[in-house]
Amino acid sequence: MAIVSFPRRLADLAAASPDRPAVTCGGVSVSRGELESHANRLARDLAERGVGHGDFVTVALPNSTDWFVAFVACWKLGAVPQPVSAKLPHRELAEIVALAQSKIILGAEPGALEGTVCLPAGYRPPDDLDDGPLPDAISPAWKAPTSGGSTGRPKLIVSGDPAELDPAAPPLRLMALDGCLVMPGPLYHNGPVVWSCQALLAGNHVVVLSRFDAEATLAAIERYRADMIYVVPTMMKRIWRLPEEVRLGYDMSSLRVVWHLAEPCPMWLKEAWIEWLGAERIYELYAGTEAQAVTVITGPEWLEHRGSVGRPVAGEFMITDLDGNPLPPGEQGEVWLRNSAEHPTYRYVGAEPRVLDGGWESLGDMGWFDEDGYLYLGDRMQDMILSGGANIYPAEVEAALQEHPAVRSVCVIGLPDDDRGNVVHAIVEADPEELDTADLLAFAGERLATYKLPRSVEVVTTPLRDDAGKVRRSALRAARL
């Protein structure tokens, strides 16, 4: 096994096929050779500004070829790229930069954060900087994304894996060598970071959308003959809701693998995609950014275990009651994960994990295993609504409401009630002229028990979930209290 650094791997790919496209985004493409040249020049620029081995560099760039140049430049110095949204509020950006003690922010206007070097989006290093090879370096952590924000307090999740790989080993996540990945998700989220970077390292042409668009995603698959795509259920629903003649008008024959993850997928939606593309192409993965343990399920397996997120393929899982006692198959409780690798898969900066004796950690999810060892997820513990003594899981209510053709997205929260303790409140993204709330509740009543039905419905026209399928329930609830 010949382990090499990420920079060495990318340099070798560039030397082998310098003109092969590496990344395309928004009509702009960079070849492997160009990516190597641009990253070398930016790395030297960052080094002159004080970035060295192990330092964090906050990458606040939108989806673009520049985002990849920034990541590769960090790896070339042995630094740790730390991705955040380009639209992050100033206060949250300041908190994250303080946690990371970042030397530089790429994607912030000069002077945006006192005491930190800020280089704006579109920045180019001086032309006289050398774009030749640099000394080899291995970043101690290949990425350091932030949490999804469900707690309202930012934290860094620093990878336990250094920026190195075995180029002779099979590519990860069913990727093909020299294939093509279409990535419609935002690169500041962990899933898009992982799939895009691993695809790049496998020699793939990574085609990134500037922002998610349902039809543009299908057009990219057809145009670039992509063999793999990463999606979340929010994207899947928007693609499925395209007019049938539009959706079926694009050639999907090149697709080998459709990965979906990051949020619960309603069963009706997964069934629709299986019927459209075939079960053998559909794969689902469940894990946290922390990656202590992972489950995967194929489409054919899912048809035998509907609703499951799969069996463990890395690490260990355990289900317990609220007192930490293990539960048998079929009983729902808290999901605990344990890393079985030789080294930690992550470390937090700005938080502590929820732990049990024996190395078990929780991400706050509820779930259960069936007799065959397949995991099923309920909801997150902090999202559960206790109403009149009954436990109501928002994801179940959301899945029912999302089937309505006028609903674009939905978030269900609990609001205080003097009688029941909490009541179910549905925030629905829809056109008010197309959605009748009485009709929606009648529709939901055919799919949910009465006690689970929303007691109030709020229609909004702004998106509730971002392009990665993430929603901040705590913020939505706080705004309504």
Commentary on this structure:
With 481 residues, this protein is α/β, with parallel strands linked by helices. It folds into three domains: 4-169, ANL, N-terminal domain (Rossmann fold, 3-Layer(aba) Sandwich), CATH 3.40.50.12780; 264-381, Luciferase, domain 3; 390-479, GMP Synthetase, Chain A, domain 3 (2-Layer Sandwich). The protein is 27% helix and 26% strand. It has helices at 6-16, 32-48, 65-76, 90-100, 190-201, 214-224, 233-240, 244-247, 267-277, 299-304, 394-402, 437-445, 473-479; strands at 4-5, 21-25, 28-31, 56-59, 80-83, 104-106, 117-119, 156-159, 164-165, 180-183, 205-208, 228-231, 257-260, 282-286, 294-298, 308-314, 316-320, 333-338, 346-349, 354-356, 360-369, 375-380, 385-387, 390-392, 409-417, 421-429, 456-460. The chain is globular, with a radius of gyration of 23 Å. The termini are far apart.
Task: Name the descriptors.
481 residues; alpha/beta; Rossmann fold; Luciferase, domain 3; GMP Synthetase, Chain A, domain 3; 3 domains; 14-stranded mixed β-sheet; 4-stranded parallel β-sheet; 27 strands; 26% strand; globular
Helical proportion? Answer: 25-40%
Backbone structural class: alpha/beta
Cα radius of gyration in angstroms: 23 Å
First-last Cα distance:
57 Å
DSSP strand (E) fraction?
25-35%
The CATH topology of the largest domain turns out to be: Rossmann fold
CATH top level of the largest domain? Alpha Beta
Total number of distinct structural domains: 3
* Annotated CATH architecture of the largest domain: 3-Layer(aba) Sandwich
What would you call the shape?
globular
